Amino acid sequence: MATSAAARSATLADARPPRAGGGRPPGEPRRVAYLYILPAYLVFALFLLIPLGRAVVLSLYDWNGLSVAEWVGLDNYRQVVADEGLRAAFGHAAVLIVFYAAFPVVVALALVATMTRARLRGLGFYRTVLFVPQIIAMVVVAVAWRQIYAPDGPLNQVLRAIGLDGLARAWLGDFVFALPAVGFIGTWVQMGLCIVLFLAGVSKIPRELYEAARLDGAGPVREFFAVVLPALRNEISVALTLTVIAALRNFDLVYVTTAGGPGTSTTVPSYEVYRRAFEIGQVGSAAAVAITLTAMIFVLTFGITRIAERGAA
Amino acid sequence: MNRPLRRTALAAGLVAVLAAAACAPGDDDEASGDESPEPTSDIQTDPSQMGDVTLVVWDQEVRGGQNEQIEALNAQFQEMYPNITIERVSRSFDDLMTTLQLALTGDDAPDVVQANNSRSSMGAFVEADLIIPLDDYADAYGWDERFPESVRAVASYSDDGVTFGEGSLYGVAQQGEMVGVFYNKAKLAELGIEVPQTWEEFVAALETAEAAGEVPLPFGNLDQWPGIHLYGAVMNREVPPEEVRDLGFGREGADWTSPENVAAAEEISGFVDAGYFTDGFNGAGYDPVWADFGNGTGVFLIAGTWLLADLDAALGDDLGFMLPPPREGEPPIATGATSLPFAVTSANEHPDAAAAYIDFITNDEAMTIVAENGLVPSVDAGGQQASSPAQQEVFDAWETVTSQDGLVPYLDWATPTFYDTIAAALQEMLGGQITPEEYLQRLQDDYSAFVGG
Fold first, then answer.
1. With an 8 Å Cβ cutoff, are B282 and A262 in contact?
2. pTM (predicted TM-score)
3. Which CATH number applies to A79-312?
C-alpha cells in the first residue's frame, strides 16, 4: 500500500466527522495499541503461555520424560480426582489457606484498627521489621523455623523454661501438630505483607470520617466496621489474593521443613507435582496435578476479586 | 483487560497448545537411539590408537576429596593419551538429577555420565536406550574380575530396564558406600561395654547405654530417608539376604509380610518403646543428629560411610566403625551400594574411548588415588593405606562385606514409588500411628502392585 498507517489514519479521521457517543473515540485507531503491547506480550507468551500450553498437552499423555509418550486423554485427571493421597494433599492446602490467608488478614486488621486509635511512635521501624519475613527467601525462612521447631530447639526450650514441659514436642514430627506448625510459619511470613497493605489503606481514610463516626457516638468496634473495614475493601482483596496464592503454591516451605511428613500429614499439591515430575518420572500425571492446581488458584482468586468488586458496587 | 485483547490472548494460547501438540512428547529422540554405535566384537582397548577424541563427561564429584581425585585422574589420563580430551562438566547431585534427563535426550548429549542407580534414573535411561550395555567392555577389561558380583548388581539391568540387579552391566563406580555402625569409643569405655561382635551383644549394649542415661542410638528422621537406612540395618539381621535383594531390587517372589519381616518390624518398634532413639526422632533433622553425635551425644550411630570424614574430624581417635554386627554364626550383611556409576551414553560416537576412560578411573592405581583422598575405593579397599583408624575400619568393612557378597541394595529402590511408600509408612510405624503389620502391608501393596503389573 502506498500510504503509511499514520497517514491513512489521518485521512480517515479527516473523512469522517467525529460522532458524539457510540463508535470509537477520536485519536489513533485502536489496533495500533496492540503494537505497543507486542514486546511484552511476546515475552509473556514465550515464558508463560507456551509452557502452560505445553503443560496442558503433557497432562494428556502418560510420559516418563524419556520414552515416547502415550496418549491417555483425561485419564491423568481422573486419577488426580481418584487418588486418595492427592485429595489429602489438597485438604492440607485448604488448611494452609486458613493459616496463610485468614489468620494474617484478621490479625493484621485488628492490629491496624488499634493503631488508628493510638498514635504509635516509630511506626516506620515496625513497618520495616514486620515486612522483613516477606523479603527473606522462603528456603532461609524454612531452615530457620526447622531449627526453632527442633526437639531441643528454642521453642521447646522456652516452653520448658516457663514450666510448660507438657506442651514441648517434636513439632515437625508430630502427626497432629506438624501441619499447623508449617502453617504458622506462613502466618508469620504473610502477616507483615497484610499489615503494610492495610496501613497504607488506612492512611487514605480522611480524618473527617472518624470524627463523623465519633460524633454519631460510634465506639471502637462500630467505628471499625463502619469506617475502617469498608475503606480497606480493596486492600483486603489484594491481601487475600496474594496470600491464598502463596498458600496453594506452597512448595519450598514443605520441601525444606517436613518433605510431606511425618507419614503423609503435610503433603501439598505443589510438592506432588515436583515428586511426580522429577522423582518418580510421571511427567504426565505431574502436569495434570499442576494444571488442576493452576485452575483452582485461578478460580479462587477470581472469586475473591469478584466478591470485592461486587461489594464495592 | 478489554475484550479483543482477551480473545487474542486466548487465540495465542491455543496456537501454542496446538503447536506443542503436533508431536507427542518424547517422539523426537527415537532416532538417536537407533543410531547408537553398538560396541563391535573387535574392541579397541588402547586409547592411543583411537585418534583425536573429545569426551564430554558429566560427573557429580564436587565435594572436597571427590573433586580432587577426579581432577587428578582426568589429568593423568590426558597426559598419557594426549589424543583424548576430557571435557568435564561437574554438577552437584541435585543438579545432576534434575538436568541429566534433558541433557541425554537433547541434541548435544554428553558421552559419559554418572547416573544414579535407581529405577527412575538408570533404569529409565536403559529403558529409553539412552545408555549402552557395557558387557563386551567388561569382558575386554576384566571388570567381572575387578568388581565383586554384589557391586556389579547395583548397576545391572535387563535390556528393557524392567529387571534391576541382574542382566547387562550399565556402569561401573569408583567408590563404595554402606550403612554401618559408627561408635564412640570413649563412651563405650565409660559404660564398660566391649565393642559388640554379634547383634545380640549390640542390643544388650543399647540396653546398658539406655540404663546409664545415654542416647544409645541417635536417630533423626525428619528428612524421612534416614529411617530407611536404619530399618535396613535391623531387617538384615532377620531376613535372609536373598530375600532382601529380591525386595530391594523389586523382583518377583519375595514377601514383605513374611514372618522374618514381621520380626524385623517388631524389633525396631521395640527399640522405640525401649527408648533407644533420640527423643522426638520424627521431628529431629538428620544433620543435627549426626553433628551432635560428633559432639559426644550418643553411643552408636547407624549411618552411611559418607559421614566418615566429618565424624573423623569431630571425634578423631574416639571414632570407631563396624559392619552392623551379624547374629551369632551369620555372615556379615550390610545395606550399601557404590557411588554413582559412570555410564556410556548411546549418543556417544566413541564408545571405545569412553570405556577406556571409565576403565582408567576405576583401575588399581585409580583406587589408590580415591583412597588417598579419603574416599572408600569400590574395589581393593582392604589393600589401601588409610589415613585414620576409623577410615581403615571402613575400608576393611567394605572389603569384608563385598568379598563375601554381603552387600544388599537400598530398600527404596524396589519400585518407582517405593521411597515415598516406605518413608511415610516407617514414620507412621515408628511414631506409633500404625502397627508393624499395617506397615508391612503397605510395603507389600506397593511391591506386589509393581511386580504383578
1. yes
2. 0.84
3. 1.10.3720.10
